[in-house]
Amino acid sequence: MSLSFGILVFPQVQQLDLTGPYEVFASVPDSAVHLIAKDGEPVRSATGLPFVPTATFATCPPLDVLCIPGGAGVNALMEDEATLDFVRARAAEVRYLTSVCTGALVLGAAGLLAGRRATTHWYAHDFLARFGAVPVQDRVVRDGTLITAGGVTSGIDFGLAVVAELLGREEAETVQLALEYAPAPPFASGTPAEAPATVVERAKKRLCGSRAAREAIIGRIT
């Protein structure tokens, strides 16, 4: 069964939001993964990794799955009508509309989260209700044909969950084993509930610039 996956790519994307699910999707036999951008110009991730789009909004083929990753660049996308129009149009066609991390905020800005269960990065979770979503504190959340994932590394879990929905558990487990995905983090600090309070505050300070700008944007559009 041939499958077509599309992942939005944009300046200041969080690279692991993109590359985690990309690796999972690309590991499925007879699959195609498209990096979709407004135009074909190369972009750099939030940490400087360059990406070259393989399709534009105009040339993007039919998709089974559309994925919106997160990152600081999401702030601009929430007010970019060309991007929002593309997402809305494809949302009506794909089998699964999905996001990783703060990519969920783009879905919210496009009006696609109202009344739907969804999740996002822990430091943006409180924004979901502003878009009419039903916030859920899970790593991967499915609401019908909408699948959203939490922050950054959850993109791998999310990718496997999507593959299981499309092709069954055995195929998803085969991909997981091929990638040797057996997480065993050295520290129990992966969520605010687990991390020491001092670490949570350090992380918030590191992320506060993007959050402040995001707060202003969401205030304008909701």
UniProtKB/TrEMBL annotation:
SUPFAM superfamilies to which the protein is assigned, alphabetical: Class I glutamine amidotransferase-like
Boundaries of every DJ-1/PfpI domain copy: 7-164
Gene Ontology biological-process annotations: regulation of DNA-templated transcription
Pfam families given in the database record: DJ-1_PfpI
CDD domains xref list: GATase1_PfpI_2
Stored PANTHER family: ARAC-FAMILY TRANSCRIPTIONAL REGULATOR, DJ-1_PFPI DOMAIN-CONTAINING PROTEIN
UniProt-recorded name of the protein: DJ-1/PfpI family protein
Origin species: Methylobacterium terricola
